[in-house]
Amino acid sequence: MSYPLALKFFQLAKDGGLMSxxxxxxxxxxxxxxxxxxxxxxxDVMGGVLGVEPYVRDTVKLQNFRQRWREKYRSENPGTSxxxxxxxxxxxxxxxxxxALAAEMTEFxxxxxxxxxxxxxxxxxxxxxxxxxxxxxxxxxxxxxFMGMSGQFLIQDTxxxxxxxxxxxxxxxxxxxxxVGFWTPGFNISKSLEKKDDLDTIVWPGGGEKAPRGxxxxxxxxxxxxxxxxxxFSSFIRNExxxxxxxxxxxxxxxxxxxxxxxxxxxxxxxxxxxxSNGTYDELVYKVYLKEYDAVVGDIxxxxxxxxxxxxxxxxxESGVHMLVPVRDxxxxxxxxFLQPLTSDLWLGTGAFFVLTGFIVWFIEHRTNKExxxxxxxxxxxxxxxxFSTLIFAHRERIVNNLSRIAVVVWLFVVLILQQSYTxxxxxxxxxxxxxxxxxxxxxxxxxxxxxxxxxxSFLPGLLKRLRINESKMIAFNSPVEYNDALxxxxxxxIVDEIPYLKVFLSKYCHxxxxxxxxxxxxxxxxxxxxxxxxxxxxxxxxxxxASSDKMAKLENLLYxxxxxxxxxxxxxxxxxxxxxxxxxxxxTGASSLLALILHVGITIYNHRHDLISGSSxxxxxxxxxxxxxxxxxxxxxxxxxxxxxxxTNVDRTIESPCSISNHIIGNFDSxxxxxxxxxxxxxxxxxxxxxxxxxxxxxxxxxEG
Length: 706
Fold this sequence. Notes:
Strand content: 15-25%
Number of helices: 22
Helix content: 25-40%
Distance between the termini: 153 Å
Shape: elongated
Structural class: alpha+beta
């Protein structure tokens, strides 16, 4: 349109409110230079308008031309507002120059037009024939190419072409034009000609810097947002002195702030003014379909039947339905609780290894260590006393054999591990509650005929009916306090509700209840908008972005609490220790003890090999057994001296009384060997016999040099 008509058009648009916030105006180049032609009057009515114009490089040659043009134009047009030639004027100047250059090339002087001989045209032009000079001029004009004021001048296919097509993007801000970017074939829209970059800040009609959407709010109105009344679970929706808040409201406001344009909103409670809801959630959502609300914001569950008449955004909470049940301590503390840390097979296995280790130590020690000798009953007692006294590391018997020492050291290590494990397990049993859910699935509730609780004014009755719960067994509740009272008194066996509500409940009553059973799939909470609303995908994209932010995590911590309530499941129970848990330790101690026993037997047999070899062919198996028993049972005094008397030789013998000394002397020496030859030392056999100590006396044959 012409400049005067365009000026009138924008004046009417401004008067009609179409130049205010929420509107966008973009002009092609034919109107962008209206500011140069008309001046400030156009700037007054076109604030926030975006326009494009061809980009002309500002050269020294162009600057000189503008100066000459300004002086000439003002002298010819006094009082004009036009101060610089427009780009169209530069194009016209270059075109006339090209035509002049073509005329010089063809030496064109005057026209040689002649009338047509046919003279049957309908216009005067049809009566004129072609000029021969004009044909030469046209041919030369099409070949003209030079660097003009507007850039490279070139004619291609009879059309004027710019070799490099670049456009400036102009924004009218206040009473000035501002270049906010460019369009180039290489970078498309960019702030710079040299690299890809975002545009400068654009000021839109009305003065806002956020890009409005003309299709979003065609009447530029404020969105009327319906909000449910939720007196029970105020963490999601609450009204504090007329100001709406809560998790659902705060998330929505944060998402709205992320939009690249302004969306004016106004909340309106769907209540009766007395703190109660004015209808069901389905009725509230249906009012969006009836266009009474532009959207609904709250703890609105995304359901298939609701999506028939509204569009939901993506969910912004955890989805699904769970069961809430009480928990109780499954471990009963009795007089026999101390037996629970170990299973019966571990108790039996540990006892068997106590006896085995005690027997092996006794077997190795009793020949050389008189603390393990005595009457049979005393020796049996020593076996059990020594082995079980290792449990508290209080054994007093000396161990003199290295083999038995090895067996005892390994066994003490096993006892230490068993003792520490037993202590830890018993402490857990006595001090830690082993909480288990009273109900694990709805089938159990159905078999018992127990009542089931649910949140009032929700979709859960339909779900419970599909799960075969009798309607007479369903009881509705409104708040976490009512949930707690019903479960603690046994009014209901379980509460079936959505996970967000249950997590809020557990943040207050964590230690007495838990969520169990399968998760029934639902889509969680979403915001409802009219069908086909362009806001729905916009809000959904911003929900995805906001859900992964720290701000969302902080809002969830405020909703559910900072401390997560641990699940009560079988993994929390302190199970008894089994024999399999210590299988490796018992193999180690058993192998070391048996190895010590085998080595002891081998060494003992090797030391008495002469006794076993001599006369072996004449012995019966009874005699063999008696001989072996004698070797492994009789005391070997060579390594167990009495700590209260001096050691003289290795022939000490205990005798009953002083009067039988000679008999013992005679009876304790081999008849084929001189007594002195069995004693250590050189020279003649000893001549002195001494009797020392109290009853029973002992004697020693003394070797004398003099």
